[in-house]
Prior knowledge:
Keywords: Membrane, Transmembrane, Transmembrane helix. The protein has eleven helices and twelve strands. By secondary structure, the chain is of the alpha+beta class.
Amino acid sequence: MSELNTKADQLKRQADLMGLTREAVFTDEQAKEVLQGKITDGYLVKVKIDLDSLNGMVLILVSSIRKHIMELYAVIGTSPTFRRIRTFADHVQISTDLGDIGKTGGYDPAISENIGRAVHRAFTKEKLEELLPLWQKKDPSHISELLENPILMATKGRNIKLQAEVDKLSTAKFRYENPMKGIILPIPKPEDEAAAAQEVSVPGISTEPAKGELSSLERQIAQYRTSFPKELNMKTVISPINGVEFDNLVEGMEILFRVPTETPEGLTNAQILGLIDEEGKISKDPVVGKFLGIAGNKSEYHIFAEGPNRYLLHSIEEHPVKVAIPKPTSMTGGTNKGSAGQNAKKKVGNAQAQESKSSGTNLFMLMGAFVTIVLFGVLLFVMVIL
């Protein structure tokens, strides 16, 4: 009976996937090729948003064959979970995190809908036709400039920072296995989309990359460099047991680096950080930096932190690692020492009090004996005379 149920579930899943795939393609033949893995029918655009005091994510599922948006999710709010979501992370993990935020109510539905509608209007069919060739080359660099103005206008925001990545995938599998299903609803396409698209000023996009144009990763890195006078190349201190994983790093958290002193540049950086004394000895103490963020793709991860004297500390890892953090200062030893000192003082004080008390008692006893002897002598003298 269980085997029959399993086969029935498999058939139902295939039928559901077939139905969802048909919505992204033109023919049944194309749908079969998608399900067989011969072709891919869509892209998932992942956009991380930092807007004034809010954070969030927008996920845009686009049919690369029909060239239109299949589903769009916008989740914006104040939940601390937003800070550990990375655009380069797997879309299933991102969707799971957004679903968890939806369960706890850590987002603002009204602002999220306004942003979702603005993104819908920005991604017109004409714009998608311009962008799809770039996404085929894994180039998401134009997405930020496309969305900045529409989102600011929709929210009346002042400061905005966007990071974007694009994944090639099956639209049906994303929709069928979506962890947000039933928790966060996709933002519907505005009914006035055509009229609103003409009102929103969106910069033109050329499919030809400009000379000297930065890649997506380079754009991310440049955002961290703008506010610091000098950048120092460092090595991440890794702690496989007690370290903090990338996803759990929070902006402002203290993390540890080392200076690679085996190179001339490293020796110079050690000198700048005051790690070399007058005798030329190099300190082995790690350098503490306040975590700023991670810029990365699927093959390299650039870790940035604010170091001493506002130097930008920069290290590179080939894969996610557990980053070491400073050990918490223990107050137990000091407390014990203080208690021991207090106990010792109490003991000395008690001993002195007891000694003083004992001396007073002995003196009193001597005086009593002396008086007794004198009285006894006087009594004998009187008796002899009489």
